């Protein structure tokens, strides 16, 4: 991402959130937009790919609290006119707008800066306020690789019991031919003749001077004379890699698993980013889940509800017998303790069995006669409170 992007691009608008949005709101919007525009969901659609890159770029800044503060400060500073010629201390006549391209080298090259962001940039822009008064400069140092996010769908049983699955990713990686330095095998990068390895150059602008990343070496401090034939001097290539990822027992739908150091590799010797795996659990045709408890709906007959019965129901690893007491109403929940999802501490949730009394739509003559005899021998349900209300309103 170029330095000018931080000023000219409205990352809040890209993610469709207000400037006051919380971190959770920004993350939620990013995930939604990333899913909608992901190239895997929009094959052959270059516009969707550009949207995906845009929201990823925006989230890389707004999703990091430190970078977000620097981004807000930079845009506020430029929006306030602090960099207009004629502002106090510049010694320039007022009213002439300061061109952002003056600050960032007129767009001549990819003027990037390292992991320090604008805090580091501003520490080297102003060098004492006097013409030619160069202060300390800083070359680009190691930069941490970006985090990678992907999504995996698990079967219900695998999510409950735990499973190890191969996960194939296609993402930037270090070039195996040059090992990341961008130079042709047998050669090495040389010190930049413009900045002499500092990675920055100092320029005068009116009555003050500032430092900027060297445009000859892109702020790295070295240049590649003979480029690697595999990565063409970039030091990185897009790789397909397969990781064996262990999903712990009891992983839940929507859970996010972090694999430290498995994201994009760092630049200039920096650490790799992290890999975040978003888990989607496919529903089971029999069991449901509430936290660590499993749920199961079981139909019983009217006679079983009235007389009681022993009910044999399945569990994840076998079956269990539950006692249905006489006079059980429809909707009652029976609990089989320890037959749910096993927690990380070894404790298990329960199996919650909801009883559903089934009323047949039709019955045989014999069954009807038996029910009529049952009705004659059974007192009617107590409905006096309802009858009283009917009489009042009738």
TrEMBL record:
Zn(2+) 1 binds at residues 175, 178, 228, 231. A zinc finger (CR-type) spans 162-240. SMART domains: DnaJ (SM00271). Its cofactor is Zn(2+). It holds the Pfam family DnaJ_CXXCXGXG. Residues 162-240 form the CR-type domain. It comes from the Bacteria. InterPro entries: DnaJ (IPR012724), DnaJ_C (IPR002939), DnaJ_domain (IPR001623), DnaJ_domain_CS (IPR018253), HSP40/DnaJ_pept-bd (IPR008971), HSP_DnaJ_Cys-rich_dom (IPR001305), HSP_DnaJ_Cys-rich_dom_sf (IPR036410), J_dom_sf (IPR036869). Zn(2+) 2 binds at residues 192, 195, 214, 217. CXXCXGXG motif repeats lie at residues 175-182, 192-199, 214-221, 228-235. PROSITE patterns: DNAJ_1, DNAJ_2, ZF_CR. It is found in: Cytoplasm. Gene3D superfamilies: DnaJ domain, Heat shock protein DnaJ, cysteine-rich domain, Urease metallochaperone UreE, N-terminal domain. Residues 10-75 form the J domain. Its main location: cytoplasm. Belongs to the DnaJ family. Homodimer. Participates actively in the response to hyperosmotic and heat shock by preventing the aggregation of stress-denatured proteins and by disaggregating proteins, also in an autonomous, DnaK-independent fashion. Unfolded proteins bind initially to DnaJ; upon interaction with the DnaJ-bound protein, DnaK hydrolyzes its bound ATP, resulting in the formation of a stable complex. GrpE releases ADP from DnaK; ATP binding to DnaK triggers the release of the substrate protein, thus completing the reaction cycle. The J domain is necessary and sufficient to stimulate DnaK ATPase activity. Zinc center 1 plays an important role in the autonomous, DnaK-independent chaperone activity of DnaJ. Zinc center 2 is essential for interaction with DnaK and for DnaJ activity. This is Chaperone protein DnaJ. It comes from Micromonospora antibiotica.
């Amino acid at each position: 991402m170029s330095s000018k992007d931080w000023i000219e691009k409205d990352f809040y608008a890209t993610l469709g959130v207000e400037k006051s949005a919380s971190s959770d709101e920004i993350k939620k919007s990013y995930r939604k937009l990333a899913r909608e525009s992901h190239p895997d969901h929009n094959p052959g659609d270059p516009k969707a790919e550009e949207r995906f890159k845009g929201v990823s770029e925006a989230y890389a800044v707004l999703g990091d609290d430190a970078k977000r503060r620097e981004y807000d400060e930079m845009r506020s500073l430029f929006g306030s006119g602090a960099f207009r010629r004629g502002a106090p201390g510049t010694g320039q006549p007022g009213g002439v707008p300061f061109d952002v391209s003056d600050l960032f080298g007129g767009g001549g090259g990819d003027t990037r800066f390292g992991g320090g962001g604008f805090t580091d940039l501003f520490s080297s822009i102003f060098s004492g306020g006097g013409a030619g008064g160069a202060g300390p400069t800083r070359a680009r140092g190691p930069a941490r690789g970006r985090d990678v996010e992907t999504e995996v769908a698990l079967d219900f049983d695998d999510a409950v019991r735990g499973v190890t699955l191969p996960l194939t990713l296609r993402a930037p990686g270090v070039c195996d031919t040059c090992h990341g330095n961008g130079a042709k095998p047998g050669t090495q990068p040389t010190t930049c003749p413009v900045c002499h390895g500092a990675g920055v150059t100092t320029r005068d602008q009116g009555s003050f001077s500032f430092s900027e990343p060297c445009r000859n070496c892109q702020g790295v401090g070295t240049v590649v004379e003979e480029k690697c034939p595999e990565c063409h001097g970039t030091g990185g290539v897009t790789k397909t890699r397969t990781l064996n990822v262990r999903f712990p027992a009891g992983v839940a739908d929507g859970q996010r698993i972090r694999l430290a150091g498995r994201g994009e590799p760092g630049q200039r010797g920096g650490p790799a980013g992290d890999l975040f795996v978003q888990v989607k659990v496919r529903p089971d045709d029999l069991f449901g889940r509430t936290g660590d408890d499993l749920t199961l709906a079981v139909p019983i007959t009217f006679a079983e509800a009235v007389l009681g019965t022993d009910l044999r129901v399945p569990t994840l690893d076998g079956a269990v017998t539950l006692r249905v007491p006489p006079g059980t109403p429809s909707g009652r929940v029976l609990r089989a303790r320890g037959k749910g999802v096993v927690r990380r501490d070894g404790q298990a949730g329960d199996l919650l069995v909801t009883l559903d009394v089934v009323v047949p739509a039709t019955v045989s003559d014999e069954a009807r006669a038996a029910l009529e005899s049952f009705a004659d021998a059974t007192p009617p349900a107590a409905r006096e409170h309802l009858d009283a209300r009917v009489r009042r309103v009738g």
